[in-house]
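QUALITY CONTROL LOG
STEP: pairwise intake check
CHECKER ROLE: data steward
CRITERIA: each record must contain a sequence immediately followed by its structure tokens, with no blank fields

ENTRY 1 OF 2
RESULT FIELD BELOW
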Amino acid sequence: MQLGKAKRLVVKVGSSILIGEDGALRRDWLNALAEDIGRFASAGAPVINEKDTVATAELRFGDNDRLAARVAQMASADVLVLLSDIDGLYSANPHTDKNAQFISEVREVTPGIEAMAGGVVSAVGSGGMVTKIEAAKIALAAGCHMVIAPGKGLHPLAAYEKEKRGTWFVASSTPTSARKHWISGAIAPAGVIVVDDGAAAALKSGKSLLPAGVKSVEGHFGRGDAVIIRDMAGRELGKGLIAYSSEDAVRILGHKSHEIEKILGFKGRNVLIHRDDLVLR
């Protein structure tokens, strides 16, 4: 990973506030986050933060490490970089144990790795190496590599490339495959989309689902919910995360993508379900 090649950008900055709910992000905040991430392409960079005065003790992440991991998860990021005053993971506390060994690479967060960090963090714990290990578990499950590197001084990424001092947590899957595994097994479907033969063939060839190929919409669902996709014979083709609510999906079904803005009055995505958000049977 060439962290030192990261470029400095002069961009517009927008702020987003996230609140944790039962250890996960609420769907409405995920939708807002998805919009913010989209601004990267238009010279805007979202700054994501948890506002302590809004989040209660029960509904909070409690640390920037896990918050960053959740954002990386939803962005399907390849790498998460945690810059810290800690230069990485040690086998023991290096301040109290002169025999502590530096760990340069971790491929699985085992109980032994957690013990090196000082134990498992509580649901509302904060700070230190413990929360960085918790962040690593989130990132690796999402197919995202993570590195803990020194953040002191100027140009820390370039300094890391030169010194190579840090701990890499190596994911065993890609963000896309991890995301599709999550969609396939962890999310209950909220509705059904019936597609014509042309759309069914397009999906099987790796295309996204366009509104033009949709014949009917069943159920009540919101943007970002999971839906089942069926063909005209009732056969299940797969499951995916839909980009429009059931009400809006009904209004645009059968129409071309360039007609969406005129029909709905706002510019949304050109597809109902993107191929990265789709798992076929």
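ENTRY 2 OF 2
RESULT FIELD BELOW
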Amino acid sequence: MPKYYIPSKIAQHRVAVIALYRALLARCSSAPLPIKDQTSLRNAIRNKFRQNRKIQSPFQLGLTFRAGYETLDHLDALKAGNAASAGYLSSLIATLPRRTISPPPIWRRPPPETTPSRNPQACLPDDKKVLNVRPRVQLPPGKKRRVPILSATGGVPFLRLTRPQPPSLSRMLRQKLARREDLFLRRVEFKYYWTPIAKQEDEWDALLRDECGFRDERGEGSWMQAVNDTIEVTWESMSKEYEQAREKGRQMLEIVDRETGLALQEGQTVFRGRRRRPLWVLKPEKTKKKNGNKAKA
């Protein structure tokens, strides 16, 4: 067991301090003092508690508690009409330093630290987009070819080129996935929530038409027709996005295949999957022939 405890971390000490602090502030608000004196005394109490919150000496803590309880007793006596307590508090407020009676500083949460991106460009121009640039037939001298990896998240294909993932790619994936989710939820909502309501509205319109003779003179059509049109438009948008994703996936797969062929022609070994546990390894033709000649020898 430790021989010494930090008072601010002991529950009993914290409860006593908070109780004294709240009692002093409550008595200041209800004491029969001028508003200016109430404000000065309240600010002095706040500042003193803020200054003494890290005191660890038992002797200093005892003096601080004694001063606080004496002030609390004088405030209670002042409320009861004691003239001596009124004179004591008036002299106390008059002797307080100016910096003590000013309101304590307001703590504001610091803004989050954002690390600026190395590439502040929000989106690549058309002449630098991956589908328009790849595959690169010729590389700068001394630069090794990196075969992109075809990946997909939520049915959205993309090419993984470097790590960490570029912010523009992350933003594009978030937007596409959010768009797909919105379309799916809209279709579910109209199919399972608005369809029963539309059927009941059509039944009510039919009842009014048969019983009361009301007619739809504006020609707006039935409720079910509007709901079905919305479901159909939503499904067409979803199908269009799925088809675009499939087409882009085919283009990206073609880029990966051509980049792989160029890398093999340059004498590189291409790994599929993780390097430590690859799914398969593609080696250039020269390496295969050399290995075959060694095996024959």
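INTAKE CHECK: passed for both entries
DESCRIPTIVE NOTE, ENTRY 2: The longest strand covers residues 149-153.
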